[in-house]
Amino acid sequence: MGILRILSSAEQVAEYLRGELANRSWTGVMPGGTKLAKDLGVGVNTMEAALKLLEDEGLLVNQGRRRGRVINSKQSDPTETRMRICVLLGENTDRYQAYILELINALEEQGHAPIFASQSLDELGDDMTRVSQLVKKTPADAWIVCSATQGVLQWFSEQRAPCFALAGRANHVKIPSTAPDKITPLRLALKRLVELGHRRIVHLCRPLRRIPEPGRFERAFIRELENLGIQTGPYNLPNWDDNVESFHRGLDSLFSLTPPTAVMVDESMFVPPILQFSSRRGLRIPEDFSLIATDPDPFFAWCQPSVAHISWDSAPMTRRIVQWVDQIAHGREDYNKGFVKAKYVEGGSVGPAPGS
Known about the structure:
Radius of gyration: 26 Å
Largest sheet: 10 strands, mixed
Distance between the termini: 92 Å
Strand content: 15-25%
Number of helices: 12
């Protein structure tokens, strides 16, 4: 028979507070002892003794008189599990994107161990054999896959290790995902271009966004052009291979006979090469053609003219992914999908169509 241990009043209160901390009833700074005592109907001295017990356990950090106690989020849940999370990037340079760094920091603050895969999807050529080999040799409890094709995400959805899709073609795959919803700002941007007299509008996007069929955003792009009375065809979604040489050959061809009056690019990294191309051709922005990026980048504000783009707050996406990791850390399934609201930011790179 075990030993019966009678808990003191302070220990009983501390036990209750531990449960509330595990349920994340409070975050950041703990309410003051006087307020907690009143809420729970116990004496202030009893409450202060209970809070002191939690301090001794490392669940709370005393900041000094009248500064409150900070909740130690890494220890507030005694059942919390440290997860090894591997982030498989679309491109190796994505690791320097602000939202990726924000995600890595948030996972570390939550007590998990995020790492980057040794190769990106671009380096793997989206080859499923190579992806499989990478996954097999990488020690990870779960995966976050960025900007992947439907085929890659379908394969991950069938594996034992849980996987989360950050952007990419996750719509028709049973896999949790989050991405910015760019459709509304796309409509606003296209409406604005048409108001300024633009009719020859093209969208430069990677092959994975066009092949085997256009993605959600690309379909919306074509549909909205047609709604605005513009006849569409292959001209509006130019074909090029996913490499530097093909991208620049595509630009040369695009501006040879019937140059576009407005160009949209699906990644901010394509803006500098287009500016370089324009300089080499003697083309001015926005006098000769308007330019819009469908991703944000801090350097846009430093350009003159500033670059028009679609922007969004990455914090909700980060919170969603951290929430998913916490769920699977406790053995709970989570297949929820969601989008983050985005907005169109018009910069000086948009102007009237030439000759309008």
